Amino acid sequence: MPITMPIRAVTLSPHCAWAIVTGHKPEEHRLRRIHHRGALLIHAGCKAPDPFLADGTPVPPNLPRGVILGVAELMDCVERERGFAWIMTNPRRFVSPITCPGNLGLWVPREMTVSCARCYAAQPVDALTEPFTCQRCGRTNSAVL
Ligand SMILES: [Zn+2]
């Protein structure tokens, strides 16, 4: 399913962003309810990551920060004892993280580019889950792993 623009993004701690795009963490616990449904870009903020997830899973060293790491589908938001759980499915990690500043709440990235997997030329993307043709080398790439 292609992702259409405008798309929303959320900035999380680098270890939380990594856990979501790699499927380690299907829920994000927040104080606020969220009404958005569908594709949500997962941005890793600039804070130092924790070395372990809450369940004890070790976090890889040198996680990228200040980048959009990937995308997930926000399916539901359910009330929990303290706050809300954002239920996310179908996480996908980008072939190359997209460098951009983060923000508070849900935000809309202005313009996104990914790198061609073969020649590393920056390519504009508007449908992240569909293959794109590189404007420099002409090969077909996918933005997501
Ligand atoms: Zn290329």
Number of helices: 1
Question: Which fold name fills CATH's third level, the topology?
Answer: Archaeosine Trna-guanine Transglycosylase, Chain: A, domain 4
Helix percentage range: under 10%
End-to-end separation in angstroms reads: 15 Å
What Rg is obtained from the alpha carbons, in whole angstroms?
A: 15 Å
Task: Give me the CATH architecture, please.
Answer: Roll
Shape: globular
Largest pleated sheet: 6 strands, mixed
H-E order: EHEEEEEEEEE
Briefly note the structural class of the backbone.
Answer: mainly beta
CATH class assignment: Mainly Beta
Count of the domains:
1
Overall average pLDDT: 89
Strand neighbour order, sheet with most strands? 2-5-4-3-1-6
Runs in which pLDDT lies below 50 for 5 or more consecutive residues are: none
Estimate the strand proportion.
Answer: 35-45%
Describe the overall structure.
This protein is mainly β. The chain has a single domain (9-110), classed as Archaeosine Trna-guanine Transglycosylase, Chain: A, domain 4, CATH 2.30.130. It is built from one helix and ten strands; from the N terminus they run βαβββββββββ. The strands form three sheets. Strands 2-5-4-3-1-6 form a six-stranded mixed beta sheet. Strands 7-8 form a two-stranded antiparallel ribbon. The chain has a two-stranded antiparallel ribbon with strand order 9-10. The longest helix is centred in the first third of the chain and has 8 residues, at 14-21. It is globular, with a radius of gyration of 15 Å. The chain starts with 7 loop residues before the first strand and ends with a strand. Residues 116, 118-119, 121, 134, 136-137, 139 line the site of zinc ion.
